[in-house]
Every structure is written in C-alpha cells, then in structure tokens.
Design brief:
The complex is a heterodimer.
Chain A lengths: L39 E7 L6 H9 L7 E6 L6 H7 L3 E4 L6 H13 L8 E5 L4 E2 L3 H8 L4 E5 L1 E4 L4 H20 L11 E5 H12 L18 H11 L3 E3 L5 E4 L5 H22 L6 H30 L7 H16 L6 H8 L2 H23 L6
Parallel strand pairs in A: 1-2, 1-4, 2-3, 6-9, 7-10
Antiparallel strand pairs in A: 4-8, 5-10, 6-8
Helix pairs in contact in A: 7-8, 8-12, 9-12, 10-11
Chain B lengths: L13 H8 L17 H21 L6
Helix pairs in contact in B: 1-2
Classes of the chains: A alpha/beta, B mainly alpha.
C-alpha cells in the first residue's frame, strides 16, 4: 500500500491527557549516528524495573553509535525506576493515566516524540530487561533502508531460572540459529529491541486513522491486543514494508524463572498471536502465519494421539514394538536436537541429545498452546 | 514487568516430539477401511515423516548471513 505525502499532517487524537512534547536534542551533536542530521531516540517502557533499567541504559551508552536521546517511559511505577533511570543518564517520561500497559505507555511517548521528528530519524523501542551488544544500533541503522520498516534484535536468554531457565535458553539459542540460517528473515519484530524509522511509524498511525489497519485509535501500537509487537509486525508487512533481524543485532533478555511465570508469558504470546491473526483475517501476508498455526495445532493433536496410542498399546499388548525405520527417524530428531543447540556448549548438547529431558518443555508448550486456542475461541477474559 | 511477545508465531518444538513419538506408536484406535492400517498410527507416522524432513532441513549446513 502506498504512503500518502501528507502523513505528517494527519491529526492524531490520543488516549492520553498530557499533550506536551518531549524535548528533542539538537541535530548534528557529538555521539550521534553516522548521518549527523538524523536523530536516533531510544525508548524504554518500564514498569517497576529499578533492578534492571540501569543495565539496559548502560548498554545504550556503550553503543558504537549511541542514541542521541534515551527516554524511559516510567509507567505506573511504584519503585525507584525513574530515579535509577535518571541517575543512569536517561530522560524520564512518566505516563499519565495509562491503562494499556506497555502499548499504552509507548503510545503516550510516541505521541509526543513523532511530531518533532523528521522522516529520516529513527526510534529504538527496547525492553527494560534487554541488554544490547555494542554493535546493535550501528548494524540496525545499516539495514533500516530499502523498504525495511523495522530492524529487530536476535535475543538469547540470560542466566537464572534453573531447569526452566535452561530450557528457555536452549529455545532462544535455537531461535537465534534459525534466524541466522534464514539470513535475518523473521516472523516477528521482537519487543525486546527493534529500530523503526519515524516515517514508518507515522505511516502506521495514518493507516490506523484511515481504517487501513486494525486498531481503534490512530496510534502506533494497538492497545487492544495482547502482543503489540507481533501486531505491529503484521501492520508493517501489510503496509508493504520488510522486516529483518540481522546477526549483528544481538541482545540478551531475561528468562522466566518459574513454570508459572512461563505459563503466563507463553499463554499471552500464543493467544495474542492468534488474536492478531483473527483481527487481520486471511491475507497474502497472514497466510504463512495461519499455516504455522495449523501446523502447531496438528502437532498438538498428533502428540495427543501418540500418547494415547502408546498408552493403549501398553495396556492391551503390554509392550511397544519398535521398528528399525522409526528408530532411524528418532535418530534424526536426536541429531536435530543436539546440533541446533551447539551454541550452548557440550553439556547442553548432551542433555538435548537425550530428547526426553526437553520433552517436558515441548509438552508444556503444546498444552499452553491448546489453552490459548481454547481461550481465544471462547473469548475468555484476558489476564496478564 | 512487561514480557516480550516474541516467538509467538512459532511452530514450537512439540512437533518434533510428536514426530519422534511415532517411532513407538502402535495400537488399533480406528482402522483405515481400505488398508487395515491403524488410523492413529497412520496420522502420527505421516506427521513424524514431515517433521523428520524439517529436522533434516534444520541440520543441513548453510552459509550464515
């Protein structure tokens, strides 16, 4: 879809009360990006992140091409997030009456930033628990051209969380490997860290205002969804942009430290993804996403069928007969499991090779996915 | 804290489990009328083979970006 020439002139009605703008730094200052006339603004939404926010900000200061400005959106914080962020050298923007969590906080800040930015300026949106490698911004800027609407990060998991943390780190390592093998092609621009051009984000606002994209309000993020980053990715793709996650844009993020937290996180992700697809319907863009959903659902059904048939066999025959051909197939999976986690070292490769250790995680994720489908179909109340 | 909505469109490694599981799947929960093959076994086995193909695709060496 084409972008109108008068996007900047679109009147933007916001859900927030305060209409003041955030102070934009002068152009061409020291420490800015390669194009000295373009600004890079880092935006970090934060809700009670006093323990992690300083590390996230430090990783921005340590960039080869640091941002011109770091803005922490302190959203309904009851701890010292704002104080710590300010001490670390960030500007703090306190949200006003935000009831839409991360998406609402980002919208409030973007409503104030975008009118002051030029098309060539860019905005890095990153989580407060993300720590970027020093090349992140310079690499992302290199790729933010030629129809690319957003450049996302490739994340790995930080330490912690014991067994469940280990499983997530393995999962993330496999994801990073897949992205590298696909030469940066991704399905989702991760909320952990993504660089957008100001022009692109204004295009999204215009498209929502015109009803070209879903979303009740003409804002960057749709506040009615559970997975705002996934939705924004679909928005960009429907507007004709490309999305990439180059290898140089690496970062680390926290992992969920308990099964309960992981369950909540994944339920939100999976249900959010499903609902995003429902909002967009079946389009040329969403066809492959729907395909993956169908494949995942098939996996759940087949796993259930397998477990039932196994139980049936044991109950009726008292034994399970293993055939050489299926043993060979199993060997393929063993090889896949341990080779794809090579980046995590020999110990994790050995654990992965047993297959059964990671089975708990696989069955758990399938169970969560089934619950997400059920909740989405029944339109159950969202809790997150 | 906010959680990031990543990996939300992924297939999930569960497909691999389901595929690997077919190695031992047996029983006679429903039989295909034309072949005598167990319907459940047939579905699980077919899925296992598809997943095995994708597993092979994932371990074939590739030039990285």
């Amino acid at each position: 879809m084409s972008r109108p020439s008068d996007v900047e002139e679109v009147s933007v009605k916001t859900q927030s009360r305060d209409t003041s703008r955030l102070p934009i730094p002068e152009r061409g200052g020291a420490g800015g990006p390669a194009n000295e006339h373009a600004l890079v603004i880092a935006l970090i939404p934060a809700h009670n992140e006093e323990k992690q926010i300083a590390d996230a900000i430090r990783s921005l200061h340590e960039q080869e091409a640091p941002p011109n400005m770091i803005v922490v959106c302190a959203d309904n914080c009851t701890d010292g997030t704002a104080r710590v962020a300010e001490a670390a050298g960030a500007s703090v923007f306190v949200t006003v009456g935000n009831e839409h969590k991360k998406a609402g906080a980002l919208n409030q800040a973007l409503d104030r930033l975008l009118p002051a930015l030029r098309d060539e300026d860019s905005i890095l949106v990153m989580d407060a628990d993300s720590i970027l490698v020093s090349t992140f911004l310079s690499e992302a800027q290199k790729h933010l051209r030629d129809g690319v609407g957003g450049v996302g990060g490739v994340f790995t998991g930080r330490s912690g969380g014991g067994f469940v943390g280990m499983l997530q780190r393995n999962e993330y390592a496999r994801y990073a490997r897949d992205v590298a093998r696909l030469k940066g092609k991704v399905l989702v621009l991760t909320g952990t860290a993504t660089l957008f051009s100001a022009q692109t984000l204004r295009h999204v606002v215009w498209a929502r205002a015109e009803g070209v994209l879903p979303g009740r309000f003409p804002q960057v993020y749709d506040t009615n969804v559970l997975t705002e980053d996934n939705e924004l990715t679909l928005a960009l793709l429907h507007l004709g942009y490309k999305v990439v996650s180059p290898r140089g844009c690496r970062l680390t993020t926290e992992v969920m430290e308990s099964w309960r937290d992981l369950y909540r996180q994944r339920l939100r992700w999976k249900r959010g993804a499903l609902e995003n697809l429902r909002d967009y319907g079946l389009t040329r863009v969403t066809a492959r996403y729907w395909g993956r959903q169908i494949l995942t659902l098939s996996g759940i059904v087949v796993t259930l069928a397998y477990l039932l048939s196994l139980t049936w066999s044991l109950a009726v025959d008292g034994a399970v007969h293993i055939h050489p051909i299926w043993l060979a197939v199993t060997c393929v999976f063993v090889a896949e499991r341990f080779m794809t986690v090579r980046a995590r070292g020999p110990l994790q490769m050995a654990i992965a090779a047993t297959v059964v250790v990671e089975m708990s995680f696989d069955i758990f994720l399938q169970g969560v996915h089934a619950k997400a489908i059920w909740d989405a179909l029944m339109r159950n109340e969202r809790k997150w | 804290m906010y959680n990031s909505g990543v990996l939300s469109g992924g297939i999930g490694a569960g497909g691999v489990l389901a595929g690997g599981g077919a190695a031992a799947a047996g029983g006679d929960l429903g039989t295909l009328p034309f072949s005598g093959l167990g319907l459940v076994w047939f579905v699980v086995a077919a899925f296992a083979l598809v997943m095995a193909a994708t597993a092979l695709w994932r371990i074939v060496p590739r030039k990285l970006a």
